[in-house]
Specification:
Elements: E1 4-9, E2 27-28, E3 31-32, H1 33-42, E4 47-54, H2 59-68, E5 75-79, H3 84-93, E6 102-106, H4 114-127, E7 129-135, E8 141-144, E9 147-150, E10 157-165, H5 167-180, H6 188-192, E11 199-202, H7 213-232, E12 236-249, E13 255-256, E14 259-260, E15 266-268, H8 275-287, H9 293-296, H10 309-322, E16 325-335, H11 345-355, E17 363-368, H12 374-377, E18 381-392
Parallel strand pairs: 1-4, 1-6, 4-5, 7-11, 16-17
Antiparallel strand pairs: 2-3, 6-10, 7-10, 8-9, 12-15, 12-18, 13-14, 16-18
Helix pairs in contact: 3-5, 8-10
The structure holds cytidine-5'-triphosphate and the ligand C[C@](O)(CO)[C@H](O)COP(=O)(O)O.
Length: about 400
């Protein structure tokens, strides 16, 4: 992981957008443009710091907007200047961590993707200066007076943002530009002026800058299609299975699926030995590739002595839901010669549904004997097995 800081520019007037107001406030699929952009950076774990450059007259409304959309975390505000370049320098001066690469990004480019950001960070950490760009796909003509010429497309790139630099380098480049009165249309050009190489990191054609009203229409349909695609995409499924056995012994309660069942013997174990809840917990952990309950609740740990297995299952379930998974369904079987399980099946289903905060229709509990065969048949112990299906609707 390479940490970077980000200067996000939002202090322009958006004149070419012809909206009569700063385009950063315009909504794409109900959400203001600047919120789309900030969210990309806020959600990127590599982004350590965000400086948002705004017009001083819009600072208050921008702050309110961020509050409303709950994207204030880690964002500091600074006032911009008359030109983009002035705004960048104001942003750079407000950066706190000057030891990591700084990304300079147009607030008007909401669709930059995380893969591009990370490739840019890696290149900048190695080379000191880099920008996202895409190959030009049209033929580019140059008109000088009446003379038309055709540029060699193979050498042409369309510059995007972020553009990323070692902090000291880009500050020096901006100071030199101030001293010489040079204004560039991007930041890389200031570094190029110092005869320092800037690396190109190939970006995505989706990373458009919203400049004209047509761009706003494009952005609107881009976001809608993205949302539709997500809605239509198959949720990601994970399946897990569990199996557990506990010995039957005198002087212990017989707790199965969180329900205490009257019986002359109970289940022996370090915790309350609820064989069914252990099995379900194992199946859940298996589904997300997290080992088994022995890994999470070692039977050598005194904390889990006589532990309520309902609490253990709820802890496991919080790990599952933290990863964005929801329950598809659980199917499980209790393998016991005795006690007779049928009278308790509905209560057990309800108990499991309650522990997992889900609907009882998603939980199926069956019971079987082993026709007096084996350790269960001899009533020496009880076994349980379970299959769980999880689905993750957050992934496409
Ligand atoms: N003085 C300025 C000018 C521009 N920007 C920001 O720089 C980015 C790229 O600039 P551009 O697309 O040209 O935005 P505007 O200057 O707002 O647009 P226009 O040129 O049409 O007025 C935008 O996110 C814009 O808010 C800025 O922070 N400060
Ligand atoms: C920095 C930039 O987005 C790279 O394409 C672009 O040059 C900004 O230009 P603008 O005139 O400020 O839109």
């Amino acid at each position: 992981m390479i940490n970077y800081s980000a200067v996000i520019l939002a202090a322009g007037q958006g004149k070419r957008m012809l909206a009569g107001r700063n385009k950063q406030f315009l909504r794409i699929d109900q959400i203001p443009l600047i919120i789309h952009t900030l969210t990309v950076f806020q959600e990127d774990p590599w982004c350590a710091e965000i400086v948002l450059v705004t017009n001083s007259k819009e600072r208050e409304s921008m702050e309110e907007l961020l509050l409303t959309h709950d994207v204030t975390e880690g964002v500091r505000f600074v006032d911009g200047g008359a030109e983009r370049q002035d705004s960048v320098l104001a942003g750079l001066n407000a950066i706190q961590n000057t030891q990591i690469p700084v990304f300079i990004h147009d607030g008007a480019r909401p669709f930059v993707n995380r893969d591009s950001l990370h490739r840019l960070a890696e290149t900048t950490a190695e080379k000191g200066a880099a920008l996202l760009a895409v190959k030009v796909t049209d033929t580019i003509k140059q008109k000088t007076g009446n003379q038309l010429s055709t540029l060699d497309r193979n050498t042409l790139w369309a510059a995007q943002t972020p553009q990323a630099f070692d902090y000291d380098l880009i500050v020096k480049a901006h100071q030199q530009a101030v001293d010489s009165g040079y204004y560039g249309t991007d930041d890389a050009s200031l570094v190029e002026k110092m005869n320092i190489e800037v690396e190109i990191v190939e970006g995505s054609y989706d990373n458009i800058k919203l400049t004209t009203p047509e761009d706003l229409h494009k952005a609107e349909s881009y976001v809608r299609n993205l949302r539709k695609g997500k809605e239509m995409s198959t949720p990601m499924f994970r399946i897990g299975q569990g199996f557990d056995v506990h010995q039957l012994t005198e002087g212990r309660p017989c707790i199965i699926g969180g329900v205490e069942i009257p019986h002359e013997k109970g289940l022996l174990g370090h915790s309350d030995a609820d064989v069914l809840l252990h099995t379900i917990a194992d199946a859940c952990l298996g589904a997300i590739g997290e080992g088994d309950i022995g890994k999470h609740f070692p039977d050598t740990d005194p904390e889990f002595k006589d532990a309520d297995s309902g609490k253990l299952l709820q802890h496991v379930w919080s790990i599952v839901t933290d990863r964005g998974y929801e329950l598809g369904n659980i199917d499980c079987t209790v393998i016991a010669q005795a006690p007779k399980m049928a009278p308790y099946i509905e209560e057990i289903r309800l108990s499991i549904a309650h522990l997992l905060s889900t609907d009882i229709s998603r939980i199926n509990v069956k019971a079987t004997t082993t026709e007096k065969l084996g350790f269960t048949g001899r009533k020496e112990g009880i076994a349980a097995q379970a299959v769980v299906l999880l689905q993750n609707n957050q992934q496409s």
